[in-house]
Structures are given as structure tokens and as C-alpha cells.
Amino acid sequence: MTQNKQTEVQQKIDIVIAWVDGNDPRHRAKRAHYLKQNEQQNIPGAQETRFGNANELEYCLLSIFTFAPFINKVFIVTDEQNPSYKTTVYKYFPERREDIRIVDHKEIFKGFEEYLPVFNSRSIEAMLWRIEGLSENFVYFNDDTFLVRPIKIQDWFIENKPVIRGKWSPTPILRLGWEKIRESFFKKILQNNNFQPRPSFHMGQWNAASLLGFKYNYFILSHTPHTMNKTTLKEFFDTNPDIIKQQIGYRFRHHQQFNFIALAYLLELKKANRHITNPDLSYLQPYQRKKDYIDNKLKNCEADHRIKYMCVQSLELCEESDQKKVFSWLANNMNLKEY
User: Fold this and answer.
1) How far is CA 206 from the centre of its chain?
2) Residue 232 to residues 12, 202, 238: CA-CA distances in angstroms?
3) What is the pLDDT of residues 51-104, one digit of tens each?
């Protein structure tokens, strides 16, 4: 047996999925309660679409067990909720029924209970490495991300180090300048002292780079599965307890927070990890698109064999026919008969 094969057999890799059902009446009531206590109820980090759910989790799990059968455990992180996945997932993968565990926020926020409840993915992500029994190397998924082709361990970890998907980019000077102009306009000209800039994807990544001392560039990532090392994260947050408290101190997403995934990648890069590669992603935003948008995206995914991952954002806002089109394609791609 070759060394690579030995590594594949011996190495345990878990998957962590963050999940929320924003349509759950209890969850909606909980969010509304804390929004009323906020100085500004319509804050950018509290839009309904951040908590949307179209049952993507079921297909996410099916794709993992289909295309990454070497996975050890799957942890689904929730806030006092019970996702519906068992009927379908157990039908196709009955042997994996003991390999899925629901993890409540109370577990990962143990010792930090005063910050709960939290409705902020950036705060939640910063605590995922604290899951009890989590493997040293793990992969973080959003529930709207799917595998579409077979995955090897080396796609995610090489020499026991995470494979990092993304690229370096110069400091976003224009974006930073524009954000300062907007904030100044709203607060000084319009006298709106409660104005909050949108907590954008790119600015969150820049915040991570700035926090770690980068001045001239930052690392841009995509909506793929994200590989992480538990020890790297634990060492950083144990050494910087004030940083984790500041990060999780926002109940709703805030523009001053960093993107946790970008931080994790940069910590690896600072440790001389040079396993950088392309996203290999098909990214769909199908809401309010042209009629043939989904068809064209799916055809491109079929044709381009480099694509390993698919992310479909805000699918819950789409027409039911469009949702069925995406899910039917995923089921056929996984060769799930009689789905």
C-alpha cells in the first residue's frame, strides 16, 4: 500500500454543517424579540434571506455520502432545532445513520453562554472548532453547498494540511474608501447615527487580513466547502481570548466582524501552508434571473469536469418549479433512483 493510500485509510475527516430553519415560528419569534431590543430593527445582518431554508440540507448530506464516502462523522449545528433529513438520507445510506449528530449552539458556546442566542453565522462559525469529538482536520459546509463529483482526501488535505481554495488580491482600497464615504454621508449628512454598512463578503475577508497584520493584500475565497485544522484555530483563539469575545459579541451579523473562514485560511498561510488551488465551483444565484439561467448553469456544470462543488444561494426565494429543477438535477447527478 502506498503512503498516500495509507493516509487515506488512517486519516479521519469530519464535516460540519451550519443549519437554520428561519421559517420555524419559534426561531422567528426569538429573532423578533432580540431585534426589538436593538436600536435599529432593520439592521443589514438580519435580513430574512439569511435564515431561509428550502430543504437543501437533505441534498447536501446525500451529496457528501455519495461523493465523499471516506467521511467519518457529520455534525449539524443548530439552535434548538431538529432538521428533517432522516427519511431520505437513511433510505439511501442506512449504514450512515449513526454518523450524523445534531449539535446545539449551547455545546459550542459552552463557557460563553451569555452570548446566546445568536443569529449570526460569523459568530457561530468562530465556535465550530469547539464541537465535542470533532476530528483534527474537518470540512465546513453551508447547507446550500453540494458535492457534484467524487472527492479524494487529497482534494481537501495534503500532508495533513488543509487545501486552501481561493486567491490573493490587493488591498480593496476603492471598496474601503467607498464604505467610509457612505458611512460619513448617512451619519453626518442624513444624521442617521444608527446607520450600519452592509457586512459584505469581501469586507469580512479584508477584516480578517487586517486583524492578522496584512496591509497590502488579502485572500479571497469562494462558496465552497472549507477545510480547517482544529489545533490551528484553538491555538489562535486560546492565545487571543479578547478576539473571540469581540467576534461573538454581535447577535446579528455586523460589518466590523471578520470572515472566520478567511481567518482560518490566513492562519494556515502564515504557517507556510502553500496548498492553494482553484475553487472548482459552480455558483448559482437563481432568484429573479432569466428563464434559462438555471439550465445554462447546470449544463456548464455537466460539461466542465473540473467542477467539484455547487452552491445555490437563496433558493427558498425561487419558484417551486426552479427549486425542483435544481433538486432533480442533483438527485440524477447522484444516481439516486426513485427519488
Assistant:
1) 17
2) 17, 23, 10
3) 777 889 999 999 999 999 999 999 999 999 999 999 999 999 999 999 999 999
